[in-house]
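Encode chain A's predicted structure.
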Amino acid sequence: MEPMTRQRFEDLVRRALDTLPGEFYERLQNVDVVVDDEPTAEQLRTGGVEEGHTLLGLYEGVPLTARENYGFVLPDKITIFKRPIEEMCDSADAVVEEVQQTVMHEIAHHFGMDDEELHELGL
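Encoded structure for chain A:
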């Protein structure tokens, strides 16, 4: 599969965010969602990724469920990684689906869900 343009990939991420129900979207205040080509070595360490594996997305911040006296802080950050998603997909349709899943997965971390809970839900 030929790589998508950065603009097309960012549009997919934006569309995934647009599909969120209003009550969830409203609770994404102070969250920055960005696209990077691939994770840095530091992001791989932060994400607890084992050698030979990679990340499709990463949530960096304090989940809503863990916040107390929370204010005057930098935005939480969700990063969606373009190259790893494209490399695991064999078609443009598969990329669309994976972007949707990855965005939902990282947003779920913002709402306090861990990987085990997400795995049980199929995310």
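The mean pLDDT is 89.
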